[in-house]
Amino acid sequence: MSDAIRVRDLVKTYPGRPAVEAVRGIALDVRVGECFGLLGPNGAGKTTTLEILEGLTDPTAGEVEVLGRTWRRDPAGIRERIGISLQETRLADKLTVRETVTLFRSFYADGLDPDAAIALVTLQEKARAHVVKLSGGQRQRLAVACALVGDPELLFLDEPTTGLDPQSRRQLWDVINDYKSRGRTVMLTTHYMDEAERLCDRVAIVDHGTVIASGTPAELILQIGGEHIIDFTLDRPGPPADALHALPTVRTVRADPPRDGVHGYSLSVAEPHRALPALLALLQSSAAQLAGLTTRTATLEDVFVTLTGHGLRDAEGTAS
Amino acid sequence: MTAKYSAITQLTLARLREFYREPAAVFWVYGFPLLLALGLGIAFRDRPVESIPIDVATDGPAGYYKAEEYAVLLRADPRLKLTLLDGAAAKERLRTGKTGLVLTPTAAAPGWEFLIDPNRPDSVLAQSAADSTLLRAANPALAAAATVESNEVGGRYIDFLLPGLIGANLMGGGLFGVGFNIVDMRVRKLLKRFLATPMSRRDFLLSLLISRLLFTVVEIAILLAAARLFFDVSVRGNWFALGGLVVLGGAAFAGIGLLVASRARTIETVSGLMNMVMLPMYVTSGVFFPADRFPDAVQPVLQALPLTALNAGLRAVINDGGSWSALGYPAVILTAWGVGCFALALRVFRWQ
Ligand SMILES: Nc1ncnc2c1ncn2[C@@H]1O[C@H](COP(=O)(O)OP(=O)(O)O)[C@@H](O)[C@H]1O
Ligand SMILES: [Mg+2]
User: What is this structure's pTM?
Assistant: First the structure.
């Protein structure tokens, strides 16, 4: 299968004092027909990477190929074949949904009927409404309709669901899944790990301008050593990390900073039915009292925290 | 397929719709210049001289009865409005502008003396009116010359003002209409969004120009119609020449607006820049008073300004009945500004 996007050694440094190294050597391959997610906290360099792929920003160094073309040689060919939604665009308030989509349609030589694009994002009922009257979720779907109306082979979405309520997010996920099911390629960025797990075939986790891990969500979760997480809290510092590591099938150990006298721990384990009894026996022999204990399946959030040693910086990103 | 969705048409339609759906914008562009024209036209309308106030002092050396006698004589001229009062009070009224002339009856010939303020036209007028009325009363044989009244349309202040307002409107509309919209779209990241599509940049800029010219035609039509209706100002020259001038002026100022907005990142910046460009021309380019009132030394600069050239052309066509031949100088200046600014703007334009 050919690649829709190929990126090698991508570097972007914004000049200034001090210069900002937004992207520091990223490599990516996105296959035709897959949904690829760039995951990372705010400031990781996701938007910069995407805008270079979209031809809106020039890279400082590196190679970029989009749909087998380069921006230097065939910009018109790429523009005709991609659809994008920027992280923030305020479309004209006083135009209606249909007028806005028709305007975007007029830029492309070939594409969908504007009403068909509106139907793809289920905004038919709002076709005659002014943009200013739309909710946040509806506006975001309109932005996606404007991206889809040129009937693109490749869709770029920068944080498509940030700030939306759960229902609006699910509606957008449906739109993206429909598009993907027609064999088209999607590249999106998000800092919602659950969104990446639901939508993306493969993800690259980005932090401080580099890819720190990539693969399918399942592969990444396996990579941290277990699919299960045991979270527990104690009323005082518990057994040392070495002792926890020594428990059966435990792969990683994380101790959270104490908060309100409560000490939290997370263990990633491969086989909870073997790790749990051993953990309880270990705690029994220590002075610390168990305040709470839960087990759950691991998420990309755990992968991120394990790999970086820090959480996603904004609280929104932890929604699951 | 392509013809069904022409980008130029859609971009132009979008501009028109956004404009007409914004009542505040419609008022500022169409209503405000109209109110300005009406207000100025009324304030500066040319009035016939209705009454000339004259005070006659009753406590002069010749006494009260003489004052009464002069008053009777002066009333022969219906324009003169007489007040009899003592000299000190009359003098005070002259100082405060309530009267134009104080006449004091005297013992010596010719029997009266005048107190005037030589710096005030109404005072000088009152003196000569009173003088001639009294002389005529003394010599009834002097025949009055036949007088024909002329108040020809074309020579009044409103006639002068209207072309200036049209020029100023073309300037404000071109700069604000183009410049403001571009920066607004840049701030909203719409320009960037458009740039990521195959949209042709030329189409985009042309649509700004076309929508601007469409608005302009309506603006000018409204102004001309109102001037006709309220002040009887009409276009004496060739309508097509006027149309050509309006299109040329609108396009030139749209080019200047494009240049002013080509790099500005915020609305505040672009507003400041536009005022910097427009205010000097409002004052010096002959909107409210002729540009040639400024010293000769600066005339070459003033005459090279686009608004000066446009106003000169508009006055030549509207007031002086000019035709195509009157448009040589304005056409050269406006084309130079328009083409120069447009070309420069294209080079330095910041799309995101
Ligand atoms: N135009 C710019 N000039 C200077 N620095 C920038 C610019 N755009 C982004 N940055 C910086 O580059 C880094 C990466 O930003 P961005 O790509 O927007 O991250 P993300 O989309 O992952 O939140 C941030 O530190 C940001 O402040
Ligand atoms: Mg971003």
Answer: 0.80
